[in-house]
Amino acid sequence: MSEALLEVEDLVVHYPVSRGLVGTVARRPRSTVHAVDGISFRLRPGEMVALVGESGCGKTSTAQAVMRLIDVDAGAVRFEGRDLTGVGTRGLRPLRRRLQMVYQDPYESLDPRLRVRQAVEEPLLIHRLGGTSVERERRVREALERVELSPPDLFLDRYPHELSGGQRQRVAIAAALVLEPVLLVADEPVSMLDVSVRAGVLSLLESLKRAGLAILMITHDLSTAARFADRIAVMYLGLIVEEGPAERVVRDPQHPYTRALLSVVPRRDPRERHQGTVLRGETPDAVNIPSGCRFHPRCPVAVNACRVDEPALEAKRPDHRAACLLT
């Protein structure tokens, strides 16, 4: 196995909640949103790891912490062996060439005033790469061809509003790839796209992974993660509750939350009958974390011990971990 390119260890991200004027005067205690509460995972070159979970479970906060777009409260984010949590703005600048992010909404991530050639060339100008305008033009064309927008001449002078949703997302990916990064963080890269174009963008990410690019993909769609990711980490309320090889997690889930997510994935054969697991209630408030197992208020198989003891993430199968007292 190759050395880890990215190591996240005991990562903690909390957001303070404003008390407001009345709360300040009344000296009410400060509340904190437990967005990420101590998670660890590794990512190797040429590997895709998918963080999966419901909205509000901490996936995007994890991605932003990896990119150092937000500060962390505790833990470490090591990229190529270097801890990024203590690196200042000036020190981060050269590192950002090697790790890039693709955002969820291609309609918002591209500047509507810039043509495609300008949007893809902008990172080169910011990092002062590419030398002459001729060299930058060559690199822009190569990036567009790499994301299958070819011939590039058809797209270079278009504005974002002249492109389809899938083409916009490909331009956003090209703008990230033009710096030749080794790690790509993709935050819900296809959730804003029509079903008809999702497969194309996901296949593009898979081809980039095969070429050696490491990808951290944030998604709420477990079926997508099962098809394209090498490893899956299932998050719930700020914690990873199950982690392992994608095929093993899907075929032999060890946590009730993972089983519930898989139970509502549509089957290929419409004649196949199955009973989905409907979780009761809503995800608990991230400010007031339940005692014991965080999933026990919604768990269909919870026992009394689940309300008291918080399970550790431990191996249930070889290279397959889960945080559940009952497995």
Describe this structure in words.
This protein is α/β, with parallel strands linked by helices. It has one domain (6-98, 181-322): Rossmann fold (3-Layer(aba) Sandwich). It is 31% helix and 22% strand. It has 11 helices and 12 strands. The chain has helices at 20-25, 59-66, 89-95, 106-109, 116-126, 133-146, 165-177, 195-210, 222-228, 246-251, 256-263; strands spanning 6-17, 31-43, 48-52, 74-79, 82-83, 99-102, 183-187, 214-219, 231-236, 239-245, 314-317, 320-322. The strands form 2 sheets. Strands 6-7-8-3-9-10-12-11 form an 8-stranded mixed β-sheet, sandwiched between helices. The protein has a 4-stranded antiparallel β-sheet with strand order 2-1-4-5. α7 (165-177) packs parallel to α8 (195-210). It is globular, with a radius of gyration of 21 Å. The two termini are 28 Å apart.
**Bulk shape:** globular
Q: Strand fraction band?
A: 15-25%
Number of helices: 11
The CATH homologous superfamily name equals P-loop containing nucleotide triphosphate hydrolases
Label the CATH architecture. 3-Layer(aba) Sandwich
Along the chain, the helix and strand elements come as EHEEHEEHEHHHHEHEHEEHHEE
What is the rounded distance between the termini?
28 Å
Number of domains: 1
Q: How many E-type strands?
A: 12
Order of strands, main sheet, comes to 6-7-8-3-9-10-12-11
The percent range for helix content is: 25-40%
| Radius of gyration, taken over Cα atoms and rounded to an integer in Å | 21 Å
Q: Given this structure, which CATH class is correct? A: Alpha Beta
| CATH fold node name | Rossmann fold
Unreliable stretches, pLDDT < 50, 5 or more residues?
A: none
Q: How is the main sheet built?
A: 8 strands, mixed
Mean pLDDT, as a whole number?
89
The assigned structural class equals alpha/beta
